[in-house]
Give the backbone structure.
Amino acid sequence: MGKRVAIKEIILSFRQTKSASKTAKELGISRWTVYRWIRRSKSLSQYTPTYVFKGIDRKSTKPHNIHSAISLSLQDEIIRLRKTEHQGARKIHYMIYGAVSHMTIHRLLRRKNLVSIQKNYRRPLFQNGHAMRPSNTKALGYLQMDTKHVTPELSGLEYTVYEYAAIDIASRYKAAIILPEINDESASFALEYFLKCFPF
């Protein structure tokens, strides 16, 4: 798969085999590639029972917009905003008036080791996810925790902080605490705090 075959060869092979699967297997290409060129060749010959390959060209894969490389001065400004303002790529994108995309900013920050890579944690096999719904939880003590970031515009602080919130699924009793970092130590501290706050 992934081999580039001439359009003419695909159409001629399909005329003989009458099967997209056989054509794909014979030429070593994907069936969806065969289907795509069959549809395009058929659209050019609406009044004939055959498939034609004349007049069909591959579409250019050249990017529509070619952006210039980010300047050194702009790189320094982005790094400064990251270190001093503690903002993410999307926020910095607006702070520099959209000079480059937020993905370009994110890639730059990753190259400079200024982005902490968050691990993806799967739910443990022993955790009863069915009990996470209020309709399925009749007893107290089943807590659901979540974390949200709070920007300086909302908190009034000079840096981004993180709100750890917990809710008892059955009683809907809620508690929250704001901490300066998002990591394992902060999560453990928040959990201990919630266990002391909840009246059961």
Q: What stands out?
A: The helical segments are 7-17, 20-27, 31-43, 72-85, 89-95, 102-111, 152-155, 184-197.
